[in-house]
């Protein structure tokens, strides 16, 4: 596609995060001419690589929701994809810990929900099991999830792009959508360099999906940017944690609580926190002091102090759930206002785990074989 040109294509995907790339890969594999428009010079620079890289099992999401279904399906697809394409990953398993007897009821609820979502291998374990697996973790019981794990998100993004291009998708970096006009057979999408006449448009613009939806004359909704910050253990304390250790979920429903992540590189992250904010690109403004992570760390980990912690990275979730609102599912469906648009919006956690299943579903919607929602 050349500068200042007008091109025609079957499907334009807006956004080259993991959802957009997986969708483009699936769509191109069906034989549709496909391009991916990305505002940044490289793929996956926002939410897709500003996260913990955890592969979720599917414990937390309401039965029948897209988050539950696509997390479980996507986990299987992701492990298969990583093994096939050499993406660094580890099926490490995780424990969700109860710090006292009052929290064991929550573990039972998670176990029931997880089994209802067809999550395999879940079991409640006792303090002896925990001590063998994580001797520095304080807990009276835990829910053990053997199929949880971790993936190198940056490597995954690069491999998704490569395989999407191998399937025939065209990647257009530094191509921010600045306008769109309806045409008889789709949408004319304008970037700063060219106009693309697309028969269908997939809105996978992440934090900016609400703005792109308005440009496309599609349904109106709000994406709430929600920042999560991390601290990490100093190098001398990394051996205190071996795998993934989660607390029971926050009662607000806005997050899974501050937890411990042993990365593929051996670092141990503590986080993420939850902070709704106005800006969608502010990763560093008014960061929490490292002191704020001491109490959450000590709640899980024995013998940790302020001197053992330092600030680490941050990420911004693209949430459809407002600060005071109820659970919000992924929004994956053909748009009701502009049927040339397929929405792939509100892809917060477990978006990374679900991405290949999201892509598969979007491919089916584009082909007219599914409706989403």
Please describe what this structure looks like.
The protein has 373 residues and is of the alpha+beta class. It has two domains: 154 residues, FAD/NAD(P)-binding domain; 149 residues, D-Amino Acid Oxidase, Chain A, domain 2, CATH 3.30.9.10. Helices cover 26% and strands 27% of the residues. The protein is built from eight helices and 20 strands. Strands 5, 6, 7, 13, 14, 15, 16, 17 and 18 form a nine-stranded mixed β-sheet that branches. Strands 1, 2, 9, 10, 11, 12, 19 and 20 form an eight-stranded mixed β-sheet that branches. A three-stranded antiparallel β-sheet has the order 3-8-4. The longest helix has 20 residues. The chain is elongated, with a radius of gyration of 21 Å. The model has no long low-confidence stretch (mean pLDDT 94).
Structure at a glance:
The protein has helices at 18-29, 66-85, 104-116, 127-133, 153-166, 209-215, 294-300, 351-366; strands spanning 6-14, 34-37, 54-55, 89-90, 94-98, 123-126, 141-145, 149-151, 170-172, 179-183, 186-190, 195-203, 224-233, 244-247, 259-262, 268-271, 275-276, 309-319, 331-334, 341-345. By secondary structure, it is α+β, with helices and mostly antiparallel strands.
Q: Which CATH architecture of the largest domain?
A: 3-Layer(bba) Sandwich
- Compute the number of structural domains: 2
Which CATH class of the largest domain applies here?
Answer: Alpha Beta
Radius of gyration: 21 Å
Distance between the termini: 33 Å
Instruction: Tell me the total number of β-strands.
Output: 20
What overall geometry do the principal axes of the alpha carbons give? elongated
Poorly predicted tracts of residues: none
Q: Regarding quaternary structure, how should these chains be classified?
A: single chain
- Percent helix range: 25-40%
